Amino acid sequence: HYQTLSLYKKLNIIDGQHRFQVCKANGWEVFFLQDKEELKGTDDYYEKIRSVNAVGRKHTTIEKFNMLAKTGHKEAQYVNEVFYKFEQRFALLTVLNTLSAPGSGGTTKQGLDNGVINLIEERLGEDLLEKIDNTTLPGRHKDLFVRTMRNICKVNDIDVDVLLTRLEDYGFEVKKFMSKEMIREKILSIWNHKRRKNRIPL
User: Fold this and answer.
1) Which residue has the higher pLDDT, 62 or 31?
2) Which residue, 99, 66, 67, is CA-closest to 82?
């Protein structure tokens, strides 16, 4: 919060709206530069800031999440607790997407736009991460694998333990070149192998 805000004329914030919101929510002191001349003394710098903010800076999902977490947001704090519980073996974005349901706009990022993290059923996502973490599957912490496992088990009502055991028995491995579609197809091929009932279309 020590990074200065950039203000122009009647204390209108040109750059640093999110930093101001975080400082206000936490009661932190706000540092700022005022007037066009103080913005590094050039019209180019002012115009750059003005144009960027006119269209809206494209913050990443993690940037938006971190800004929300700094305000003491309860659900964001829970996501961070789970992230550190696994000692960062899963990426923060993986944990966030696993624990949360899409926002009103259809994605976690769009939910964050409104300051909302819609957690799925209590501990459901955390249990999935824990079960995946406890396997010996190479590449099990990769985001694409975790998201694919979550979707397959949710959509097809498959027991996570049963599927993970089957993948281990067949020596499944997440390789670097594999896309989400390739991971899904491989998992379902293993699930369907020698199975007459409860087969899932590829």
Assistant:
1) 62
2) 99
